[in-house]
Specification:
By secondary structure, the protein is of the alpha/beta class. The protein contains 13 helices and 12 strands. The strands form 3 sheets. Strands 1-7-6-2-3 form a 5-stranded parallel beta sheet, with helices on both faces. A 5-stranded parallel beta sheet has the order 10-9-8-11-12. A two-stranded parallel ribbon has the order 4-5. It binds phosphoric acid mono(formamide)ester.
Length: 319
């Protein structure tokens, strides 16, 4: 696998079923391929903050025997310019063309985190920064969350559902929840995209106006009545996202969409999921995230498993 930016890269490579099988094997025995990355270096460039992605990807590389180099753009390294043809007489110091190419000289696999700017929908939805990085890196690239997707998170989410489901084809609900700041659509887009390829009954629920981009939602069931959506659900996945139209807008902070015990009582004793970090008592009430049915910590633990699985395919491909 030369790139991992969406579920489509996994489908074009080993396939979801084979990747899931390998992921479950890594979950059972994390050291089963602990020399695969010997004498290999994985470089991770973060243009935005991270706790889970940063630590879990480093841990995953370490379990495979690979070294890691981690940089925070702008603090550990130079401020990066991502536009083409600009006169660099402002605050940016190094162009992504050189930065990616140089990192590719030092590393066998690279990862990039670059969030949506939420100012220019076309720029974000064309994945301008990630695609440039891939074009200039010269080595396989993993998305550590991009403008429109968070594939390592979504793969971890799928693994978590596989481990916790109690029947075939469980009902999985993605619910919008309020947040004080405008957040990208990446986690929600990516979750829907992955779940549409999984054997689950997927329902998306959000207030009117928060429709996700049709290219991600496709023919997924969308219900604006959250109570109806939660009825009989086995997994509740909460996430905030800003509006796609007008792009990046906060249309509502309606606290009746906070995931409460009352809302969860309509479900089939559903497991609660969130990618973290989470705003308590905005996205989800304490009583829900602290309940035994909350699986946010094993979900975060599976970030190591998803990263290890993807890295293993990339390292194998280096020959
Ligand atoms: N879920 C997730 O990607 O967490 P971080 O932003 O802390 O990496």
């Amino acid at each position: 696998m030369k790139r991992f930016t969406s579920v489509h890269d996994l489908i074009a490579g080993p396939g979801i079923d084979a990747a899931m099988q390998r992921a479950l094997e890594f979950a059972a025995d994390p050291w089963r391929q602990d020399t695969l990355g010997r004498r290999r270096t994985v470089g991770l460039l973060f243009m935005n903050p991270s706790l889970r992605t940063r630590m879990s990807t480093q841990k995953a590389a370490s379990l495979l025997g690979a070294e890691t180099i981690v940089l925070n753009a702008g603090s550990d390294s130079w401020t990066l310019e991502t536009r083409d043809g600009v006169v660099m007489d402002g605050s940016t110091t190094e162009h992504i063309k050189e930065a990616a190419a140089v990192m590719g000289q030092y590393c066998d696999v690279l990862g990039l985190r670059t969030f949506a700017g939420l100012a220019d929908r076309q720029h974000d939805y064309q994945e301008t920064v990630l695609e440039k990085f891939i074009a200039y890196a010269g080595v396989p690239v993993i998305s550590l969350e991009s403008a429109t997707r968070h594939p390592l998170q979504s793969f971890a989410d799928l693994i978590t559902i596989e481990q916790h489901k109690t029947r075939e084809r469980p009902k999985v609900v993605l619910t919008w929840a309020p947040h004080p700041k405008a957040l990208p659509q990446a986690v929600a887009n990516s979750f829907v995209e992955w779940m549409r390829h999984a054997d689950v009954e997927l329902v998306v629920t959000h207030p009117k106006g928060y429709e996700l981009d049709p290219s991600f939602v496709g023919d997924a069931t969308v219900v604006h009545d959250r109570d109806a959506a939660f009825e009989g659900a086995e997994f509740i996945y909460a996430k905030n996202w800003s509006a796609v139209e007008p792009y990046g807008a906060i249309l509502s902070q309606d606290k009746s969409w906070t995931v409460s015990e009352n809302a969860m009582s309509r479900t089939n004793n559903a497991k609660f999921m969130h990618c973290l970090p989470v705003r308590r008592n905005m996205i989800v009430d304490d009583a829900v995230i602290d309940a035994p049915t909350s699986i946010v910590i094993p979900q975060a633990a599976n970030r190591v498993v998803s990263a290890q699985t993807v890295l293993s395919y990339m390292l194998e491909g280096l020959g």
